[in-house]
Amino acid sequence: QSADYRDSGLDFGRDFVFGSATASYQIEGAVAEDGRGPSIWDTFSHTPGKVWNGDTGDVACDHYHRVEEDLDLMQRLGLESYRFSIAWPRIQPTGTGEANEAGLAFYDRLVDGLLARGIRPIATLYHWDLPQALEDAGGWTSRDTSFAFAEYARIVGERLGDRVSVWTTLNEPWCSAYLGYGSGAHAPGHTDGAEALAAVHHLNLAHGLAVRALREVVTNDPEFSITLNLHVVRPDGPTGAEAARRIEGLANRVFLDPMLRGTYPADVMEDTAAVTDWSFVHDGDLELIHQPVDLIGVNYYSTVTVRMWDGSGEKVVADGHKDMGGTAWPGADGVEFLQQPGPYTAMGWNIDPSGLEDLLVSLHEQFPDTPLMVTENGAAFDDEVVDGGDGPRVHDAERIDYLRRHFTAAHRAMARGVDLRGYQVWSLMDNFEWGYGYSKRFGIVRVDYETLERIPKDSALWYAELIRTRRIPG
Ligand code: PNW
């Protein structure tokens, strides 16, 4: 059992960048406005049976129309950065060709609104809303998508490349590849391990090509990064190390190695040889993927515990993924994911801040010259709205406790020498939680989906105090 991490008073210093994060499809709504084309998440969410309750992002938090109000909210909370994503189908409705001026203008206003309030823009180019037209041509199983992505990156870089502080190419390519094409839990909902591994490579290639394209057009010396949901894998028993090697390979090293070392892990290629021959990796691709990055973005929520299944009894697969008929782990059929000890969030994800400390320290040891940023951390809980006398209140003590413990973990990692530059809490507001629709609330601000009113939860006020004082509140 880990130390409880419930510290207060720890000082993060002046330079640490405290912010919060969202993503386009999860908050914007206005899916058919100003020339936006359809994305794979429009298609997926409108397909019966894919998303809880038939929820879609059609309206979401209506952020597209409430951007000024949301900017004012960020300012009131004292955010120093805002991590948002750009919807590719607003910029290029079919994924290639002419830029759509209205789409560029929206993000132009957002970035100017942030700068006017002293908030640093952290822009993610791809948080899962692939133009549907590109999916119809093969999506991430096609290498053409990587080259289309570089074109899109160039268009956005030309427009915003004088004002964005941090560019992130992709958000969690693990999810795009394995949940999108392997398990079927995310758009486009395919269940084919070979497709998932092809998607891994084309996402890696897209990252490299986009960094190269952005570097050519930006003018303000920003930082370039990628955001990964690296898995913190705990081994169990005598076969735990073997199982952990496989899962760390598929989840972590298959992204980190090409991007930061210019190689694919040989053991992962061997483990998956029966699934794919990796012929989608062409000569020269690894050099293209291996672009210098200034920052690794870390999304952290929880941990997994693994061992090899001994073939007897029912295989345990408590990896937290909805079973849509495929697998998120091609070539790792023999791995068991054990039920984690609690406590849990409303997602059923175990709460373990030691995983964040371990992950940050491990990354720092592997890549000592690359600074880190927590680009997502936060929790869904079943919030209750109560009458506070002068209006509705959400006393989300569990979320405050979750954040306190994870900020403590981050601080401990820093005390151990990790160069951690900032922390973007997921999420600024309740939003469309992918396959779970609006049933899971991650916000530090509540969204009333009837009135679309924003109500800062107690966690938002707690976070505002942390930002103001630089210390974890008592
Ligand atoms: C991340 N999984 O998603 C995303 O970057 C956010 O958009 C999302 O809202 C947040 O975490 C909370 O879920 C994930 O199944 C979705 O392992 C699913 C998984 C991991 C991350």
Automatic annotation (TrEMBL):
GO CC list: cytosol
Keyword Hydrolase: yes
One GO MF term attached to the UniProt entry: beta-glucosidase activity
Record key words, sorted: Carbohydrate metabolism, Cellulose degradation, Glycosidase, Hydrolase, Polysaccharide degradation
Top EC group: hydrolase
A GO BP entry: cellulose catabolic process
EC number: 3.2.1.21
Pfam families named among the record's database cross-references: Glyco_hydro_1
Location of the active site: 172, 376
Keyword Nucleotidyltransferase in record: no
Catalysed reaction, written as an equation: Hydrolysis of terminal, non-reducing beta-D-glucosyl residues with release of beta-D-glucose
Chain sites annotated for binding substrate: 26, 127, 171, 301, 426, 433-434
Signal sequence residues: none
Family statement drawn from the similarity comment of this UniProt entry: Belongs to the glycosyl hydrolase 1 family.
NCBIfam families reported for this sequence: BGL
Name of the protein this chain belongs to: Beta-glucosidase
